[in-house]
Structure to design on (675 residues):
């Protein structure tokens, strides 16, 4: 099992979700987060005075999937969220040791 | 436990001080009411004796009933003849005179309705100011801002009821009787000064005795909502760092002293309004609806308080450069501005104190024109300088136009109104940048620039743009003819009356000096006795919880996550 964490543009969430519905996934969790990347935020003007927006709003999408489905899911996320401009976000894939369904107590990929 | 008790003790002693001042002022008022008790006309609380044949006028304002002849006047003979002829006619036509009494009553009733209804519109500006200022600050101070606006209304009105109204209008019948409302004849004595040199009114303390009169109370309602406007203005400059208790003292000071004193000089028949007669300065100092009397008083009082309080923590970096604290709710800001514009439809046209004065349509239209030209100017100027139009500055520009047209709205043409709006739009942008970058006065909502600077500009604009089509006989000047023309009203520099311009320039500047100086003097001392500023910890946390025990948006409170 793998855990896929994708930091994406908030306005791209709908598109990513509709592409994911064509993949083998059993669930996903989205959180509103704030962060910065290589650009380190940007500046705006308020009443003639500059201010910096250090942490930009992003969506953190977390999906746990069986190993064989990871590539398909990652492709869908990239397809749905890429604009080609700075700030498109990143995807991290990490191994998952165990998964447990609380209701039934099932373990492993069957619990997903 | 010890520390909170000590703090509450201090709050209590401050409040006790405030209450003592109020009570003493009241006692003083009651005494003076008794002193003046039996000179002059009887009050009419029921409203059945207000408005009779003496209130009947034609469209040009000529009274049906000729005035009692004045034996010292040069045209005594003509006056006496008109008076005697009228008396003879009255004896012949008793039914016509009964009808004239009814017509006079209906005329005053029409004007009562207008004055009260426009007063209610001005009252609603409270909601506009609350939303505007709340939206312009950081989310952590939203409840604090709403509470300041709310408390401003409550405490300033109490002070105005006790002494403010009497100080401002206690002598209005002497030089500036509101004839549209029946003339309020009971308000007829100065506490300080007399004749054309009145400095403080002296009747109507606690709205009792001479103040307990239908005509007078109609005026009270319309005037207290104006005083409240000056009271709300300071909120925009002192917010996010003032303690609640010292804010209440500020409001008592504005409602009881600062506002009524200048108001008496200009609107209560005081010395500034009479400068036309005494010093031959145009029609005296003219401020139709309060660019200075209301807005500049509030604006420069706010400036003094902002200087005393100092900037918010973090407003200026170690390099002395200003930092932005962006508004937390632009929806509130724009909604609030629109409510203020709507309220201004009472503020300016209502200041005729009567719907029988048909100039109200011109006034209403001028007010809207200055609002949009002020807003357009600020918006475009900002777009040119900073590449993006700033929503909050567009709103400030609209308010600047409104503030600046408030004094001249009745005396200028629609074209001049547009021009005045443009000037105000330029001034408000310059003022905001000047305060923030050069003076380093921290004014979160731009109150000093919008109300102070543009209020000053508005009064000066009367002296420049007034076209003489309205205000014949204003402040007792030139009723028969002015500048060699019959019916010539208040006239500005561009239409040939330099003395009006001089009077406006001096008067508006005096207003700024009075509002800034008196406030600075009183609150500099108070601030030395007990700091008016919240603790740095409270300020950083946001004042909602430390000052009032609750956040504006409960979902932000950590408690709600677990419940």
């Amino acid at each position: 099992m793998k855990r896929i964490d994708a930091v994406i543009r908030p306005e791209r969430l709908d598109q990513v979700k509709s592409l994911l519905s064509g993949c083998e996934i059993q669930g996903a969790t989205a959180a509103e987060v704030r962060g910065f990347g290589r650009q380190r935020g940007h500046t705006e003007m308020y009443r003639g005075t500059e201010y910096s927006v250090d942490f930009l709003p992003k969506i953190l999408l977390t999906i746990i999937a069986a190993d064989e489905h990871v590539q398909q899911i990652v492709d869908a996320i990239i397809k749905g969220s890429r604009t080609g401009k700075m700030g498109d976000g990143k995807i991290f894939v990490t191994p998952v040791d165990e998964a447990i369904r609380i209701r039934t107590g099932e373990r492993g990929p069957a619990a997903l | 436990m010890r520390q909170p008790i000590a703090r509450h003790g201090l709050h209590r002693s401050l409040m006790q001080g405030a209450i003592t001042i109020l009570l003493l002022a009241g006692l003083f008022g009651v005494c003076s009411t008794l002193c003046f008790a039996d000179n002059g006309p009887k009050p009419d609380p029921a409203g059945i004796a207000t408005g009779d044949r003496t209130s009947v006028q034609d469209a040009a304002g000529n009274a049906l009933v000729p005035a009692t002849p004045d034996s010292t006047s040069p045209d005594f003979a003509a006056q006496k003849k008109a008076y005697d002829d009228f008396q003879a006619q009255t004896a012949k036509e008793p039914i016509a005179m009964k009808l004239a009494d009814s017509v006079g009553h209906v005329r005053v009733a029409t004007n009562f309705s207008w004055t009260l209804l426009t007063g209610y519109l001005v009252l609603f500006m409270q909601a506009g100011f609350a939303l505007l200022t709340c939206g312009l600050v950081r989310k952590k101070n939203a409840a604090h801002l709403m509470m300041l606006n709310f408390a401003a209304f409550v405490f300033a009105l109490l002070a105005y009821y006790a002494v403010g109204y009497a100080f401002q209008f206690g002598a209005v019948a002497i030089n500036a009787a509101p004839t549209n409302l029946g003339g309020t004849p009971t308000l007829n004595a100065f506490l300080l000064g007399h004749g054309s040199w009145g400095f403080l009114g002296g009747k109507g303390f606690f709205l009792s005795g001479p103040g307990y009169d239908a005509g007078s109370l109609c005026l009270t309602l319309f005037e207290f909502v104006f005083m409240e406007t000056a009271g709300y203005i300071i909120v925009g400059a002192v917010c996010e760092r003032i303690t609640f208790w010292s804010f209440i003292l500020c409001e008592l000071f504005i409602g009881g002293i600062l506002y009524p004193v200048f108001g008496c000089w200009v609107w209560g028949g005081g010395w500034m309004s009479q400068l036309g007669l005494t010093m031959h300065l145009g029609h005296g100092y003219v401020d139709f609806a309060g660019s200075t009397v209301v807005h500049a008083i509030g604006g420069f009082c706010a400036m003094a308080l902002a200087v005393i309080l100092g900037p918010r923590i973090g407003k200026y970096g170690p390099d002395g450069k200003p930092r932005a604290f962006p508004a937390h709710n632009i929806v509130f800001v724009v909604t609030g501005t629109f409510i203020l514009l709507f309220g201004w439809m009472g503020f300016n046209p209502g200041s005729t104190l009567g719907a029988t004065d048909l100039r109200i349509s011109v006034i209403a239209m001028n007010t809207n024109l200055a609002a949009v030209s002020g807003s357009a100017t600020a918006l475009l100027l900002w777009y040119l300088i900073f590449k993006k139009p700033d929503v909050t500055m567009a709103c400030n520009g609209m308010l600047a136009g409104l503030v600046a047209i408030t004094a001249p709205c009745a005396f200028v043409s629609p074209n001049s109104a547009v021009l005045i709006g443009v000037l105000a739009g330029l001034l408000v942008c310059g003022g905001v940048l000047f305060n923030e970058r050069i003076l380093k006065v921290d004014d979160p909502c731009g109150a000093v620039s919008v109300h102070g600077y543009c209020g000053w500009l508005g009064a000066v604009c009367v002296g420049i743009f007034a076209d003489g089509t309205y205000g014949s006989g204003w402040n007792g000047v030139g009723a028969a003819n002015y500048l060699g023309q019959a019916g010539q009203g208040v006239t500005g520099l561009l239409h040939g009356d330099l003395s009006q311009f001089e009077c406006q320039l001096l008067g508006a500047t005096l207003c700024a000096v009075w509002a800034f100086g008196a406030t600075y003097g009183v609150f500099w001392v108070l601030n030395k006795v007990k700091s008016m500023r919240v603790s740095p910890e409270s300020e950083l946390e946001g004042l909602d919880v430390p000052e009032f025990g609750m956040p504006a948006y409960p979902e932000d409170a950590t408690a709600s996550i677990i419940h």
